Amino acid sequence: MKRAYLIAALAVLGAAGGAYSVMHMMHSGHHDMTVQATAGALSIGNAKARFLIEGRPGAVFLSINNKGSADKLVAASSSLSQRVELHTHTMDNGVMKMRPVDVIEIPANSMTELKSGGYHIMMFDVKTKPEKGSPVPLTLTFENAGDVQINAIAGDVGDTHSH
Ligand SMILES: [Cu+2]
Question: How far is the CA of 101 from the centre of ligand 1 (A)?
């Protein structure tokens, strides 16, 4: 009985570890995306910015559809922010934590989603909280595709992203 329980627990851990790569595949092909910008084989859309509290960092979420070879998102910047970072969320003893990452890998022929609980872009030192529905200008820098300009749409709380 005890042994069966252990095996079940290991299976769950294994599934969680493989979830990222599987997610890329599952989302290709049947995904609704409002395309806002293209660069080479990349289409970028569904860009949303969430500013929860005046004076606190904002988070940006978006989708990247790559119909070509692998690329990397290496930087992001904005005229509204003094400091923009690429982030990920990780579970640490059951507590969700975020940390900066150097790059976000964009696998070949994949749909990569920056979303709450996963990869996201953080905007620090934003002087004035953008009005709901207003454009938040961003420049995304890809290793191969170069710079891409996009406007994320400022939104409300709406989710549990807790910065
Ligand atoms: Cu973050």
Answer: 10
